[in-house]
Amino acid sequence: MDSLSHLDANGNPAMVDVGGKAVSRRTARARSIVALGPDIMQHITQSGLTQSGLAGVDIQTRKGPVFQTAIIAGTMAAKRTDDLIPLCHSLGLDNCQITITTDGPDAIVDCLVSTEGKTGVEMEALVGASVAALTIYDMCKALSHDIVIRETKLMEKTGGKRDFKRT
Asked: The pTM is what?
């Protein structure tokens, strides 16, 4: 197992020095799954929305359109990851795409980010997906508190020492 990269020789937290690394294309895709629960799915059904693959439609609440707001929040968060995670490098993202679909009672949030840089964008993708999921919770909690953000995970990354793809 490799050593932890964010510790110096004395075991203290340290930002990784990427000064000597070459610039390369970096991408990452993360996913959060939000279990909306039966009350919210009933609301979606009563609103005339389909329960499968909500791409292109949205849940309307008094706070506004849930998925559209979550996409904006997730994008904003991905761009500000270095403000939230102490040892992350500041990165200018070339792209951030968040999509939200449904699968039965679940909202599936995918966040794909890319940049040309010396360090990866996994944290930006994970933060984007996480904040979009939290925004869905916030926007829907008036309908039900039976919402569970089940998991957030890296699905794939390219660039750097090695590529990764979850199967």
From this structure: 0.87
